[in-house]
UniProtKB/TrEMBL annotation:
Transmembrane residue ranges: none
NADP-dependent oxidoreductase domain span: 42-299
Stated name of the protein: Aldo/keto reductase
A Pfam family of this chain: Aldo_ket_red
UniProt cross-references to InterPro entries, sorted A to Z: AKR2_Oxidoreductase, NAD(P)_OxRdtase_dom_sf, NADP_OxRdtase_dom
Organism: Aquipuribacter nitratireducens
Length: 316
């Protein structure tokens, strides 16, 4: 399987705190801006050297767009597709103990402000711009004035998409697929959480992929729950056993299952070290026997339970 189907996400790289397991082990105390810039560049170097061709950022990922812009300036010939997102603001003040790390705002004013900053940093390297965590409750999927401005961005050659989250991901995907501007679907890229613990959005993603949309899978290792050295659980132990039977790591197996979905265009790695990048890239070499895929299907949790547990994960 081509490494180009693996992408690199910057959510856990470009801000000091996130909800991924093992950050103390992986990052230690080196979480200053300069430290994380160096780390981001090293991870991007390793990812692109390994064949990765998609990079995912967001306005709320601390300095992600700034770090990525600097790396792109230093690598002007890099063959990568750049996606970013708007709709959350980073408000953590570069602190681990901040009361809040990001604030959601799907207003037209927020889009105008954030898109201007994204375009200032990334310019014509921006290929895909997603609404960050589009859910019915924010009204972002029903705001026709906002849709018109997103349509204008589309006319500039930037694909417009949505990322989704929560137990109602499938409903958000299907609602977004109905939105049109000037008689054409507005949203042609869909980013969603899919992993062996939370596969419920799969049928909706298959529908939009069949209609020609790009599908980007995020959180394939469930925010570290399915990564090496992550939290212990019955599901993790079963994944370890299956991975060992295939001679690979649990992260590679979890990502390989996502890559095996016929509707998945890109599966994001959340690696924060070059070593994790290489471990994740092993997923592209995993062959999945039917008995293993059948066993993995039994790991799925109820969506409400999965998302409730995710909402309670500490920022660290």
């Amino acid at each position: 399987m081509s490494p180009s189907r693996l992408g690199i996400g910057l959510a856990a790289l470009a801000r000091p705190a996130y909800i991924t397991s093992g950050r103390g082990r992986d990052l230690g105390d080196g979480r200053g801006v300069a430290d994380l810039r160096r780390r981001t560049w090293a991870v991007l170097d390793a990812a692109v050297a390994g064949g990765v061709r998609y990079v995912d950022a967001a306005r709320s990922y601390g300095c992600a767009e700034e770090f990525l812009a600097g790396w792109l300036d230093a690598h002007p010939d890099a063959d990568v597709t750049v996606g970013s997102k708007w709709g959350y603001r980073y408000v953590g003040d570069w602190r681990l103990d901040a009361d809040r790390h990001e604030v959601k705002d799907h207003s037209l004013e927020a889009y105008r402000s954030q898109s201007a900053e994204t375009l200032r940093l990334l310019g014509d390297r921006l290929s895909v711009y997603h609404v960050h965590s589009a859910t019915p409750g924010t009204g972002v999927l029903d705001d026709t004035a906002l849709h018109r401005e997103l349509g204008a961005l589309r006319e500039r050659g930037v694909a417009v998409g949505v990322s989704v989250s929560g137990p109602s991901q499938a409903g958000s995907v299907r609602r977004a697929a109905e939105v049109e501007v000037d008689g054409r679907p507005l949203f042609t890229s869909f980013q969603a959480t899919w992993n062996v613990l939370e596969p419920s959005v799969g049928p909706a993603l298959a529908e939009v992929a069949a209609a020609g949309a790009r599908v980007v899978v995020k959180e394939a290792v469930a925010n570290g729950r399915l990564a090496p050295g992550g939290e212990r659980s019955d599901a993790a132990d079963r994944l370890d056993a299956l991975a060992a039977s295939l001679g690979t790591g649990r992260d590679a197996l979890a990502i390989a299952v996502a890559l095996a979905q016929p509707w998945a265009s890109v599966v994001l790695s959340g690696a924060v070290t070059p070593e994790q990048v290489r471990s994740n890239l092993a997923a592209t070499r995993v062959e999945l026997p039917t008995d293993v895929t059948d066993a993995l299907a039994g790991l799925a949790e109820e969506p409400d339970e999965y998302w409730d547990a995710r909402s309670r994960r500490p920022w660290s």
